[in-house]
Each structure stands twice: as C-alpha cells, then as structure tokens.
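Aggregate trends can hide what the representation actually does to any particular protein. The sequence in question and its structure tokens are set out directly beneath this paragraph.
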Amino acid sequence: MDYIKKLARFIVPYKRYGILNIISNIFYALFSTLAMVSLMPMINVLFGEGKKVTEKPIYEGIRNLKDYVENFINYIITSTSEQYGAQRSLLYMIVLIISLFLLKNLFNYLGLYFITFLRNGVLKDLRNEIYTKVTSLPISYYSEKKKGDIIARISGDVNEVKNSLLAILELIVKEPLTILFAIIAMFTISVKLTIFVFLFIPISGFIISRIGKSLKKKSDRVQREQGIFLSTLEETLGGLKVIKGFNAEEKFNNRFKDSTNRFYNFSNTLINRQNLASPTSEFLGIVTIAALLWYGGSMVLVEKTLSGGAFIGYMALAYQILTPAKAISKASYKVKAGNAAADRVLEILNTDSPLEDKPNAKIKESFNSEITLDNVSFKYEEDLVLRNFNLTVAKGKSVALVGQSGSGKSTIANLVTRFYDVNEGNITIDGENIKNLTKHSLRNLLGLVTQDSILFNDSIKNNVLLGKENATDEEIIDALKIANAWEFVKDLPNGIDSNIGDSGNKLSGGQKQRISIARAVLKNPPIMILDEATSALDTESERLVQEALENMMRNRTSIVIAHRLSTIQNADQIVVMQKGQIAEQGTHQELIDKNAVYKKLVEMQSFE
C-alpha cells in the first residue's frame, strides 16, 4: 500500500469524505454486531430460556457492563411478559432487531455514499494531472512511448486505482472493525469457544495469502497488454487509408487479434485467481463453522455451559466474521491490482521533463532585433543532425532553409520553438538564451505552420481561435481572408461554425493548410516559422497557399523551411543545408550566379 502515500496529495482534498466514511463504517460494524447479538434474547423468549429478572438492575460501572445489559434486557422481557404476555416481548425483540439491521444498512449506505466522492474525486484529479503532464512532456518522450499505452494508463489504470481506494478503506476500517466487534462479542459470550475458533483463522489466512501472492505481476501484464492493443487501434484509425490502399487489413487484423488473444489469456489467469478467493475463504469458513457446531454443540447439549440462545447468537457472530473475511481477501486482490496500476500511473507523473522552465525563467513579451543560432550541434539519438551550425535572422527579414531531406532543416524549427534543446551551442532571441525564457512566453512570440495541417474535430472557428482565444468573429473572418480561406468557408452550410471532422478530413489538403495559416495569422506573432507549408499541395492549392503565406509574412520575421524552391525566391536570405551544415547562403540570384549546390537543386526541380 506504499502507493497510497505517493497518491496522498490526491486524497487530501477529499479527506473529509474519507473521515465520514470511516465514521459510518464504525457505526456499521457496531450495529452489525449488535444486530447479531440481539438474536439471543429473541431466541430465549421463543424457547423460554431467558433468566427471569423482576427488579430493575443498577449500573455499577464498565466492569459489570455485560451483566448490566443482560439483566436489563431480561428485566424488560420479564416485566413485559408478566404484564402483556410473551408475545408482546417477542414483538419488542423483533422491533429491536429490525431497528438494528436498519441502522446497520443505513450506515453501510452512508459509508459507500461518502467514499464515492473520494474515489471519483481522486479519479478526476489523477486524470487531469496525467493529461497536464502528457501535454507538458517533451515531444521526444512520445517518440519512445506508444500512444495507446498512454491512453490505457489515463483510462484503465486510473480506474483500477480508484477501485482499489475503496478496497483499502474496507481493508483497514470497515471489515476489520466488523470482525473486531464480532470477536469482542464472541469473547463476551464464551472465551473457551472463541479460542477454539482462533485455531482455524491462521490456517485460513495462510492459504488465502498464498493464492494472492503473484496477483500484482499478473495484473501488470493485463494492463500492459491493454496498452498494446489500444496502440494498435489508435494507429489503425490514423492510417486507415494506407491500410486499405495496401490491402493490409488482414495483417493489422492479425496483429490486433494476437494482442487481444494475449489479453484474453492474461485476463483469464488474473480473474480466475481473483475468483478463487471467494470460494476458498467461504469453504474455509464453513469448515470453521462445522467445527464450531461440533464443539459448541457439545457445550450446549453435554456440558450445559452455554444456552441455546447464546450458542445461536454465537454462530451468527461467527458467520458475521466470514463475510468481512471474504471481503478482505477480495479487497487484498484489488489492492495488489491497484498497486500495479498505480506504478504505471506514477511512472508518467514522476517523469521529469528536460525542458522544464528554470525557477528564475524570464517572461519575454517582445521581439526587437534578431534570432541567433550560435555554434549549435544537435542529435536525436546517436548521429549529429546539426554540426556547429550558425545563423542570424534579423527582425523583419525572411530566411529560407533549403536542402535535401535529412539535412536538418526541420530540426532548426524544432530547436527554435524549443520542442527539443540543443546539445551544444546556444539559441538566443535579442541576445537572451531561450533556455532562460519561459516556454510559454517564447512560444507566444512564434507562429508555426507545419507540413501536416494539424486540425481538431471541431468547428473552423474553434480551430482558428487556438491562435487567439478571445478573438471576435470579425477578426476570425479577416484572418481567413488573409489566408485565402474565406472563399470556401463562406460557402459552407454553417460558415465558420461548420465542423471539419476528425483531423479536418472534411476539407481538402489545401483548405486544411489555409485554415492552419489563418490560425497563425490570428495569433499575429512577431516571428513566423513555416515548415514545408506547401510541399504536400497540388499546384492550384499551392498558389493560393503561397499567396496566403506572402500576405502573412509581409513585414514579419520568418524562418521558412522549403522543399519547393519556387516558393522562396523572394526570401531575403536563402540558406542551403547539407548534412547539418551550411553549404552556401545568399539571395536567390546570388546563389544562381554561384552556379553551385542551390542552382543544381533548382535545375533538378524544374524537371520534376
């Protein structure tokens, strides 16, 4: 249960519900025991075995409490029977039993009522914190992790933790107290019989603990496999066109079936192990009851040291122990499963982001002079993608980065936006190292349009509003006009309120890209980064998007990563990259006149 300490900060805000649950469970355990004890006087009335007490007993302190309560009940029964008859006494006993069972079940409900707020509150806060963590971790983290595994942790694993919270409270409060009160009552009735019962309890506990020993490991396997098939599902939905286009449905079906078959086998092993707890504990309980019947029966029939009513009440109390003991064995399984799930949840929550803001990070609100990449080297894994790279982008100028795939162009966009940190060298804005700035203020200065138009399953308006949350409809329409998107948006049935489907798939590639540009236009940042924004478009769409980009880049600092060289001929400076280094740089005409790498790239594209 160590993970409860680790999750304590999630539990603390709801501790009042935990306290109320504990109080309710104390009363539940108390009334459960009293309800069983109350059977004794009722049976004594039925069989006339009750001791006749004609004088009202006097309370003589806690030491004589048992005798006082017993004599007081017998006094009530005796006086009622003499005045109204035995049937009236029986009625009173029945009313007492009903009242005690009512109170028992009322407090049981209240206990469950209060714990619901604690469990669901912890579930909500855990999910919120994991989601916040997921969005704050660097992009590099997700190049190693399966998305489906993250989804499994935020859904299934967190739910498992929630369920185990109730199990823990049952383990440490409700069921143990029920057993404790029952044992106290049993000792009160017969010390000798209770010691006999306790000979069987360690044996039962040992057998049950052996069954549950490997549960955490089995539960962990189930949860990991759930992450694998959810990842397969997520990848399938994302790549459905490719799967269908290459007739790969059977391959992916087999991959998914292999995972669900493993999940099936792991789940069967886990659930069957869990299911073994209840019948095992019940059988061991019945063996204990059978032994009780034999030993206790001889005390009633042979030794005459126990009354029939006391023995039946004692048997009821003994059975009263069985139910919570069974619940404890089940709960211990849930705790082990919750422990495995919590480890997976805490693994995400405890992951440190290498891109965390420094404690004294500055907030930068304006861009005044230049962006500088000073002797920058960077690698994603083993091989350097950039080597001793130097570049200065002056305010108001547009710099285009060109070169073959793998030359490091997009890496520069990733580094300037601080999706990754440089391994060596520095990137500065107005002379300030971007590592010393808050990521939020740095990215407020930047606008990003990527090759993949990343849109969300929402309206055009809400997609564009990511650029500026409080923008008016007029501002949104102006941004769409600059991006050459208003011409098709105005013809949609609901205009800017039209839903664009999952990933914007109700729109064409060119339309999606222009919505992305409108989003960047609305943000109106001083620095714009365009990462191959037109490379995936047809000629007509490219012309419209290029016009939109030129509208947006006017009088703005821009870093343009380009595949199609026709789109960057007007750039103030063109940087030609090869294997992470600058091969040559200059204006379009200067590079053509040099008759070197850039001219060859232009000539190659002119034949495409």
